[in-house]
Specification:
The chain is of the alpha/beta class. It has 16 helices and seven strands. It folds into three domains: 126 residues, Fumarate Reductase Iron-sulfur Protein, Chain B, domain 2 (Orthogonal Bundle); 90 residues, FAD/NAD(P)-binding domain, CATH 3.50.50.60; 104 residues, no CATH class. The longest helix is centred in the middle third of the chain and has 15 residues. Pfam families: Fer4_20, Pyr_redox_2.
């Protein structure tokens, strides 16, 4: 640690967001451009470099968090990028999209606000691209083996990149017309601009990974033929079968799944469509589900100029502090969190009947009613 008392003297400070009334007029990322780097060094200094860093255990990737926090606090961005990329192929994705269970496991979070680990991660990734610390890494020699990867979401892309760098000839098969899976057509651009995805795909092409878009395995190419052609096949198709809400009226016109709605909005941003066929413009919208996908729909509907948007959350409103009996540290707690979309709905008063910021808590959907 550059400052061994940083966790005592420096308060938590997060990447500031642009004003809500400004950012809902575009699809750019919600954060103030350039506002993270000036504060991130001090935030990294809040890391205590614990003897047993529980953030390691909480992170699904096992990121070496204390190590790169220390390097950022010392402004050694190249070394920080190397330590971060040692466990994470795409930190600019996770630094924007991950729910940050590492912060729930931060030892400092026992009695203080956690280190802003996710912000530090994002800053390292962005700085690495700006400084040229992440060039393509094509293999020195080929293994003579070929691997097919089915699916181009984050798991498929990470597997493809590691296999390519190991010297195998890799082809990624994607049923959509563009690479990225949910990163492309599920995640709204205001959470992660697609330029980050394009940049990584470009890096992978330069390393030798091949991409086959608009190709559905089992329809456009036979699975048995694929298995015979390649030495190995990686299946990374994701969970594209949505959960159904089996209540009366589900078949009514105007009731849609999130993954019917969000891809169309993303295609508008890509320039494929002038207007989404499911645009919320001028409509009174109800989002069933209180999770991240529901928040994505909320933020999208607000940007499409919906007349109102209300989100139903089946759970009671959680508290602002961890329930130490039900969810002791270092478990990931249910807290009242204010996403960018909820902040926008609150400030713009998009749901006058809601309990707070567009959400109705402890609300269970019993039926849909209508005449169409």
């Amino acid at each position: 640690m550059a400052d061994p008392k940083g966790f005592l003297t420096t308060p938590r400070e997060e990447w500031p967001r642009r004003p809500a009334d400004e950012r809902v007029r575009d699809w750019d990322e919600v954060y103030v451009p350039g506002a993270l780097l000036p504060i991130v060094g001090r935030q990294a200094d809040r890391c205590m470099d614990c003897g047993v860093p529980f953030c390691h255990e909480a992170c699904p990737l096992g990121n070496l968090i204390p190590e790169w926090n220390d390097l950022v606090s010392r402004s050694d961005w190249r070394a920080a990028s190397e330590r971060l990329h040692a466990t994470n192929n795409f930190p600019e994705f996770t630094g924007r999209l991950c729910p940050a269970p590492c912060e729930a496991g931060c030892v400092l979070a026992i009695n203080q606000p956690a280190v802003t680990i996710e912000n530090v991660e994002c800053a390292i990734a962005d700085r690495a691209w700006e400084e040229g610390f992440v060039p393509p890494l094509p293999p020195e020699r080929l293994s003579g083996r070929a691997v097919a990867v089915i699916g181009s979401g984050p798991a498929g892309l990470a597997a493809a990149q590691q296999l390519t760098r190991a010297g195998h000839t890799v082809a990624v098969y994607e049923r959509d017309d563009r690479i990225g899976g949910l990163l492309r057509y599920g995640i709204p651009a205001f959470k992660m601009e697609k330029r980050h995805l394009e940049r990584r795909v470009g890096q992978m092409r330069a390393e030798g990974t091949r991409f086959r878009t608009s190709t559905a395995v089992g329809r456009d190419v036979d699975a048995a033929a694929l298995r015979a052609r390649y030495d190995a096949v990686v299946i990374a198709t994701g969970a594209t079968a949505w959960r159904e809400l089996t209540v009366p009226g589900r078949e009514l016109t105007g009731v849609h799944q999130a993954m019917e709605y969000l891809p169309l909005a993303n295609r508008v941003c890509e320039g494929d469509l002038e207007r989404s066929p499911l645009s919320a413009a001028g409509r009174h919208v109800v989002v069933v589900g209180g999770g991240d996908t529901g928040a994505d729909c909320l933020g999208t509907a607000v940007r499409e100029r919906a007349a109102s948007v209300t989100q139903l959350d089946i759970y009671a409103r959680p508290g602002a502090e961890r329930d130490e009996q039900a969810e002791p540290w270092p478990t990931y707690p249910r807290l009242y969190r204010l996403s960018a979309a909820h902040e926008e709905a609150r400030d713009l008063r998009s749901a006058p009947a809601a309990d707070a910021d567009a959400r109705l808590f402890a609300a269970s959907t019993l039926r849909f009613t209508g005449d169409e």
